[in-house]
């Protein structure tokens, strides 16, 4: 795995606030049918990490998991965590704060980037 996880200042501030309010928290990148690929924040004690969940990394002592079926979408990527104004999922701890976490990613593999950007024959 070659992941790098970066959170912007606003995301780090919201993570800090949620840690102060809730104690240990985790992120799970969903791959659900209803919400697409979302970053959900939960209290660590309330979220059961299953045998099919894979740890992608952590930021500010917050572990970030995704389901093994979603892992290939993030393998060898830089993962960016940002915040926007609005409400995200009702199941995520930041709900109701007027802010929501947003996930973006970028491929780290230069050979793959060159391949997808190649000029067709």
Automatic annotation (TrEMBL):
- Kindly give the InterPro entries that the UniProt entry links to this protein: DUF779 (IPR008497)
This protein's superkingdom? Bacteria
PROSITE patterns in the cross-refs: PROKAR_LIPOPROTEIN
Record protein name field? DUF779 domain-containing protein
Q: Which organism is it from?
A: Brachyspira hampsonii
């Amino acid at each position: 795995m070659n992941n790098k996880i970066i959170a912007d200042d606003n995301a780090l501030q919201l993570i800090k606030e949620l840690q102060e309010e809730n104690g240990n928290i985790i992120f799970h990148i969903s791959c659900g049918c209803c919400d697409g690929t979302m970053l959900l924040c939960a209290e660590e004690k309330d979220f059961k990490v299953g045998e099919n969940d894979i740890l992608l990394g952590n930021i500010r002592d917050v572990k970030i998991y995704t389901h093994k079926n979603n892992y290939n979408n993030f393998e060898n990527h830089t993962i960016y965590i940002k915040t926007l104004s609005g409400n995200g999922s009702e199941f995520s701890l930041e709900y109701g704060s007027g802010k929501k976490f947003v996930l973006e990613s970028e491929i780290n593999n230069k050979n793959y980037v060159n391949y997808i950007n190649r000029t067709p024959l």
